[in-house]
Amino acid sequence: MKRIRRLLYATDFSAAARPAFAAAVSMAKSLTARLTILNVIPPVVAVVPDLYVDSATFDQLDKEARRWSTR
């Protein structure tokens, strides 16, 4: 049987995801595997399809989403 060397933990950083993170860390330690944490930043979209968002506002919203995700 092949040894597990890498684990991928996908998360939204919510409180509900914390137990899964603890399990992933524990599993990675016990297997001496590399743990990669993945978070996908959802794209900024207008709630109303016909709503116009200028580029400066869009850039600000995107920047805030990335800042929140990095935190």
Short description:
This protein is an alpha+beta fold.
Verbal overview:
The structure is a single chain. The protein folds into two domains: 1-40, no CATH class; 42-71. The model has no long low-confidence stretch (mean pLDDT 87). It has helices at residues 18-31, 55-70, and strands at residues 6-10, 34-38. It has 71 residues and is of the alpha+beta class. The longest helix has 16 residues, at 55-70. Strands 1-2 form a two-stranded parallel ribbon.
Fraction in helix: 40-55%
Write the element-wise H/E pattern from the N-terminal end onward: EHEH
The biggest sheet, with number of strands, parallel, antiparallel or mixed sense and barrel status, is: 2 strands, parallel
Structural class: alpha+beta
- Strand residue content: 5-15%
Shape, per Cα inertia axes = elongated
> Which residue ranges are poorly predicted, with pLDDT under 50 across at least 5 consecutive positions?
none
User: Ends: how far apart?
Assistant: 39 Å
